[in-house]
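Incident review: delayed structure delivery

Summary: a single-chain prediction request sat in the queue longer than the usual turnaround. Root cause was a stuck worker, restarted by the on-call engineer. No data loss occurred. The affected request and its eventual output are reproduced below so the record is complete for anyone auditing the incident later.

Affected input:
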Amino acid sequence: QVQVMESGGGLVQAGGSLRLSCASSGNRNAYYSTGWYRQAPGKQRELVASITRTYSADYKDSVKGRFTISRDNDANTVYLQMDDLQPEDTAVYYCNVKQVTWGGDLTDYWGQGTQVTVSS
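Output delivered after worker restart:
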């Protein structure tokens, strides 16, 4: 069983910064990717940024140039640096880790979420 733990959320004023961390356990050889998702009240969960085992990163258009995802393989930790935060970034942020099974399928593991609140 893979454990996923997020940290780093909080309250910040518009224009401020936060860094989220996602620490995970599990077999490093089975690691596939990590994604940061967010869910605002009344809205669907959406993918904000992701990074693969080959360090290929992708971003939601609205956060490009403001958010940076990175991975520390030795620490089994993925970070999301969020700069120039805006009120519309307010949401619960979830970390998703994908692992490859022996059969070649992908299995999702989720953290409990961390609240990010941006005041105007």
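Verification: The CA atoms of residues 10 and 90 lie 10 Å apart.
Action items: add queue-age alerting; document worker restart procedure.
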